[in-house]
Structures are given as C-alpha cells and as structure tokens.
Design a protein that fits this description.
By secondary structure, the protein is an alpha/beta fold. It folds into 3 domains: about 280 residues, 2-enoyl-CoA Hydratase, Chain A, domain 1 (Alpha-Beta Complex); about 180 residues, Rossmann fold (3-Layer(aba) Sandwich); about 120 residues, N-(1-d-carboxylethyl)-l-norvaline Dehydrogenase, domain 2 (Orthogonal Bundle), CATH 1.10.1040.50. The strands form 4 sheets. Strands 12-11-10-13-14-15-16-17 form an 8-stranded mixed β-sheet, with helices on both faces. Strands 1-2-3-4-6-9 form a 6-stranded mixed β-sheet, with helices on both faces. It has a 3-stranded mixed β-sheet with strand order 5-7-8. It is globular.
C-alpha cells in the first residue's frame, strides 16, 4: 500500500496512518479508500489485534473526498441515466455497509484527529467508536459538503444527528460550518481534547482501558438526543428549518433540502435503513445538473485556478520581496494589507501624507477587529504594520519588484503616476494597473515598456474578495503574466486571466445585471418586483441595491467615458437616460451619498426611493417573476458567451469562476457558461431569440451560440467549444 500504512504494536493495537505521497494533505481518493478499507478489514480479521487507531502522518487528518473522483462517479461514461444513478447509489451504499462492519466488529476503533478533519474525513471519525482530537485551535472539524452542492454521503447525515440531535446537527450540515476542537467537544462531536504530543497515547489508552466497541445507536435503549422528528424540540426543528432554508436559498440549491430530508427520514428508522436513504438522496443529488455544475466550478476548477494551471510553464517562479501601491484609497489600502499579510514589504504612496497614513490605518483597523475576535495578536499586528511604509515620495520604489497602480479611473492621472513611478523603478520591475474598465493596452502607452505592463483587477473589499482578474495587454509578455500570477497566488487569491477589452470580463458582464434592472424600471415594472426577482435568481444583491453600492455616479462616469471613446458607435438606452437623470437632475449618487435608488434613513432599514415612479408609468399588468429571473440570468450569460467568442476570456472555467467569485453570479448554476450548457445551447438560443423580439437586440445570441446550437456542442464538452 502506498497511501495508507498499518502497523500493530506490542500491545496488539493496529495504527492505520493516512499519508498520501506527494500531497500536502490527505484526501479520500479511489486508491487510498481501497487501501484504507483493506487495512481496516485486515485488522478486524486479525485475532491478535485488540483495537485500531486511525490517524494521519500529515499536518491535517483528512480534508475530505477528492471531488474529481466524485465527478467521475457521477459522469458514468457510456451509462444511461438510470445506470448512472444505480452506480452512484451502489458506491455509497457499499461504503455504508463497510462502515457498519467497522462499527459492529467488536473491536474498538479510535480516531486520533491530529489535524483538520472535514467532509469524508470527519465521517471516518464518526464511524469510529471514540474520537480524540489534538488541542490546536487551527484544527477544523465539520461537514462542508453543502458548499459544493452535495450532502455528507458517508454517513454524515445519519451519524451526526444521532450523536448530538437534529437541532444541533442541522445548522452544521445545512450551512457547512466547521468547529475548532474545543467547540467540537462542547457540541459532543468528539470525546476528548488533548495536547498533540499525547494524542496517540490517549487513543491507545482508550483501547487498553477496555473502551467500548459499540456505537450509541447500537446500544439497547438508545434514544436520539432531543428526540425523533415527532418528539419535543426536534419536532419544531424541521418546519422552522424548512422556512429558514427557503428564505436563504430561495429554492435554488438542491443540496440543503436533500440534507433536511435525509435527517428527517433517516431518524425515523434504524441507522442501516437511514444510510440507505442517504445513499439514495446522494445519487439523486449527484445526478442533478446544479450539483454537478457546483462541484466542477466551485471545487475542481477553483482548485485548478488557485494552482495556476494556466501559468506560462517556461517562466521561473517569481521571488517577490517588495512591492509598491500607488493610491492609498480603500482599494489601494486593501491591496497593501493583503500584500503585507503575505509577508511582502509595501510602499504605500499617495499625494498627501495624511492620505497615505490613512491608507495604512485601514490595515490597523482590520487587525484590531481580528484581535478582538481572537484571530490575531498585537505582535502579529505590529509585524504586519511594520511592513507598510506610507509616503508621498517615489524614492522607495528603487528596489521594488512590482508596482500596483490603484488611483482614480482617469487615463491622465494613471499616465502621470505611471511615469513618476517608472522614473525610479528598476528595469526588471513589473507595472500593474488595478483599473476595472480602462483597456490595458491604452494605459500601457504611458509606460516605458508595454511588455512589462499588465492589469490586476481587485474587487472590493480586497481583504474579503477572493478573485483577481489579470488582464493581458496586446504587448504583455509571458514573463509579466507569470509574475502577476505568482503575486496573486502569494496573497492567497484566485486568479483568472483575460485578454484586453473595454470592461475586460467581469466589469463588462456584471454591468448587464444592474443595467437590466434599470431597463425594467424604465419599462414600468414595479421596483420591488425587480429587486425580489433579482434576489430570487441567487444573486447576492438585488440589481438596484447593487447599483447604489457600486455608485450611480461611477456608472455615469464609465458611461460617459465609453461614449467618448466609441463616438457614433455608442448607443444610448433608457437605462443610460435614468442614470443621467439620477446624477444630474436628482443628485442621487448611491449609497455613499445617502441617496440613490434607495433611501438610507439614519437608524432605519434602507427603502426604495418613492421617486422611482418618476421614470415610467407603472405597467397595468406586471410580468411574471420567472420572466424577470430569466432576463437577469440570460443577459449575463449572453455577455459571458460574447466575451468567450471574442476571446476576452479563453477558458470556460475562467468565465464561470470569474462570475461566481467576482460578482456573485448565481453559484447554484456553476457560472454563466455552465448555465448555458445546462439549459442546452439550442434551447438557450431559442429562448434568447424570443427575448430579443420582446425586449431588444441585447438578447440576440452571438454567432458562437448559434453554431453550438446547430452542432450540439457545449462549453464543457470534451474538446473545445471554440471549434464549434
């Protein structure tokens, strides 16, 4: 065996150790799962073995299942849907049967949890009769499967509620929350928390001390903590839980109701029947396109992007030490913070000392909040702040490896700071612009070397938003691209790479969502209906509320700049006219001004501005909410497809990851291109043609989609959709 080892000591205790070669942490794959089961069954069959300890040789215990393997199970090449479903059910049902062999083996199994145990990793722990965890607050324990569109299919929906009751288990299962060791002990998920150096000794002591080799649910007289779904507090958990679930998911996500059903139905029957119920729901879930899309986009493709799979392979890794950030506003201050957090020295430049100091103070504020929550220390705060040097002088750039410009979205200002910085920078340094809309090739005209000029588009707030959109100009070299990608990885963000274009990818597609909401307003659709429909798609914010957050005057300025650049090719729409009036006639600039599409009364909840009725007479018959949801989703998917056709974005996975991480495009869909695949290109094109007839040419599908509709190709087919 290469992934799992088993050794029996002089006391007759078999220690089974997970240790995948060439991996930083263990994950459950087809190979090591087979080895683990072989080792367990051998220990059970060996009469000299008194008990078994399961642990890990790595810093983490087991981080969960390899979802690439899960996707392979659900793909089922050459099988009918019925055969696929049966194959998935059989896989999880066989796992359940194995776990019951362990539980009823008569030999105590102990999980010595030396590090993070999540998903399938913690399900292995719950299969054990006793669980001992190292006293390390960095260890995380839980079942996060719901976050990638799945349920805990290795017994998690059955064992956790039987350990701690439905009331306590449902929030952990439905929200994918993880607990540190002390919280897990308090919850009843582990039996003991001990110093890491004592972990194996404590685990073995349980076996040598005659620890029971029976699970609570197999003992005579066992009762579920809190009762069955028909008893006491548990009886209230399910109707309340269903209501809360719908309010949060709006019916878009299949995994949470499947988890709820598994727990509800499973707790009414013996655990063996409950595990079969879980396997059936798991098979149904994995056959659901939404779950498969989420697995692919939120896990497999996200990991691929985080590992820089598209990075130029022939460029050595950049060893960055010092960077500069030009502009200490909220965006520049956030970039300085995440860079210093990654161990980089940062020169933070602004036009006045007060502005530069304020930029550094932003990091201090974030660190104070982290200290208050126990997530940092004064020592760590001092060390991070020492790495940020606020200044008005460019002299400190002489030994910088990378400069990130984060000044106002104005070509002239950006050109000025580019020249000032490059007058001091070493010739080897890379210059990056954090512009969100201005084409990189045009900005590079102010640079001494366009080959070393690139875009790195961050999202606000920088410390929380995971995505960085890297934009190649026409002259940007592979070396420059590689350095930018290495930097993004260094600060623990997820990059996508796009080619130069107005608005690039994220800003260009994102704008269609808010724009469509404003177009609906111009049509006379009730503002509340517009906002509710937007939220019901699964978007994180309603379109008009999001317009306020972005700032209406910023949308106005971007529109004016675009009009100036495009000249006669620019087309004014009713949405542009509303934005113009909001800014110039009513002075409603958005949330920052305290008035926009919404009112922001002090001490009260925001509410829609009653003056929105000024823009259009309300329609006598309001449209169906599903029609509005379709418009919101399809207008974004269409623009994403246009970006792909124009080679602004060159990989479907980048388009989907960028949409989900960048502006929160309905995660249940897997992203805009996954949405098109799920609907089917032919059906999608047909629906768009109908929308175009009713609402305008913005819904007319691009040639690529028509070709895909005719050929039957999809974005995620084997091969490349670009050839469709």
């Amino acid at each position: 065996m290469t992934n799992v080892t088993s050794a029996t000591d002089a006391d007759g205790i078999a220690v089974i150790t997970w240790d995948m070669p060439g991996r930083s942490m263990n994950v459950i794959s087809a190979d090591n799962d087979r080895e683990f089961k072989t080792a367990c069954l051998a220990a059970i069959a060996d009469k000299t073995v008194k008990g078994v300890v399961i642990t890990s040789a790595k810093a983490a215990f087991i981080a969960g299942a390899d979802l690439s393997m899960m996707e392979g199970i659900s793909a089922g090449a050459g099988l009918t849907k019925e055969q696929q479903g049966k194959a998935i059910f059989d896989f999880f049902n066989d796992n359940a049967k194995f776990s019951r062999v362990v539980e009823k083996s008569g030999k105590p199994f102990v999980a010595a949890i030396n590090g993070t145990a999540l998903g399938g990793g913690f399900e292995i722990c719950m299969m054990c009769h006793h669980r001992v965890v190292a006293d390390d607050p960095g260890i995380q324990i839980g079942q996060p499967e719901v976050k990638v569109g799945l349920l805990p299919g290795g017994g998690g929906t059955q064992r956790m509620p039987r350990l701690i009751g439905a009331m306590a288990a449902l929030p952990l299962l439905l929200e994918g929350k993880s607990l540190d060791p002390q919280a897990a002990l308090k919850a009843g998920l582990v039996h003991k928390v001990v110093p890491k150096t004592e972990l194996l000794r404590e685990a073995k002591a349980y076996i040598l001390g005659g620890g029971k080799a029976v699970q609570p649910w197999d003992e005579k007289g066992y009762k579920i903590p809190g009762g069955t779904p028909y008893d006491g507090a548990a009886r209230q958990a399910f109707p309340m839980g269903n209501a809360l679930l719908h309010s949060k998911t709006l019916g878009n996500y299949p995994a949470p109701p499947a988890i709820m059903s598994c727990v509800y139905e499973g707790l009414q029957v013996p655990i063996d029947a409950g595990l079969r119920i879980e396997a059936r729901y798991m098979a149904e879930l994995m056959m659901n396109p939404a779950s498969r899309n989420m697995i692919r986009s939120l896990f497999i493709n996200m990991q691929r992007a985080a590992k820089l799979a598209s990075r130029p392979k022939d460029v050595p890794e950049a060893k960055l030490k010092k960077i500069a950030v030009l502009g200490a506003g909220m965006m520049g201050a956030g970039i300085a913070y995440v860079s210093a957090q990654a161990g980089l020295d940062v020169v933070l430049i602004d036009s006045t000392d007060a502005a530069a100091q304020k930029g550094k103070a932003y990091s201090a504020g974030l660190l104070d909040a982290a200290i208050a929550k126990g997530r940092s220390t004064p020592e760590k705060k001092a060390a991070l702040l020492a790495r940020i040097t606020p200044t008005t002088s460019y002299a400190g750039l002489a030994d910088c490896d990378l400069v990130i410009e984060a000044v106002f979205e104005d070509r002239a200002i950006k050109a000025d700071v580019t020249k000032l910085a490059e007058a001091v920078l070493p010739s080897s340094a890379i210059f990056a612009s954090n512009t969100s809309t201005l084409p990189i090739t045009g900005l590079a005209e102010a640079s001494r070397a366009a080959t070393k000029f690139i875009g790195v588009h961050f999202f606000s707030p920088v410390d929380k938003m995971q995505l960085v959109e890297i934009i190649r100009g026409k002259a940007t070299s592979n070396t420059t691209l590689a350095v930018a990608m290495d930097y993004v990885k260094r600060i623990r963000k997820t990059p996508i790479v796009v080619n130069d274009s107005r608005g690039f990818y994220t800003s260009r597609v994102f704008a269609t969502y808010t724009n469509e909401g404003i177009m609906m307003l111009a049509e006379g659709i009730t503002p509340a209906l517009i906002e509710n429909a937007g939220r019901m798609t699964g978007m994180p914010m309603a379109p008009l509320a999001l317009g306020d957050e972005v700032a209406i005057d910023l949308m106005y300025k971007v529109g004016r700049q675009t009009q100036k650049d495009l000249g006669d090719a620019y087309r004014v729409t009713p949405a542009h006219e509303i934005i113009d009036k909001m800014v110039n006639e009513f002075g409603r600039l958005g949330k920052k001004a305290g008035k926009g599409f919404y009112e922001y009364p002090e001490g009260e909840k925001k509410r829609l501005w009653s003056g929105l009725s000024k823009f259009a007479k309300p329609m006598a018959l309001q449209p169906d909410v599903d029609e509005l949801k379709t418009r919101f989703l399809y207008i974004q998917a269409l623009e994403a497809a246009r970006c792909y056709e124009e080679k602004v974005v060159t990989a479907p996975e980048d388009a989907d990851i960028g949409a989900i991480l960048g502006w929160g495009f309905a995660p249940w869909s897997g992203g805009p291109l996954s949405l098109i695949d799920t609907v089917g290109p032919a059906e999608f094109v047909a629906r768009c043609d109908l929308l175009a007839q009713r609402f305008g040419q913005r819904f007319s599908p691009p040639s690529l989609l028509r070709q895909m509709a005719a050929s039957g190709r999809r974005f995620y087919d084997t091969g490349d959709a670009k050839a469709a």
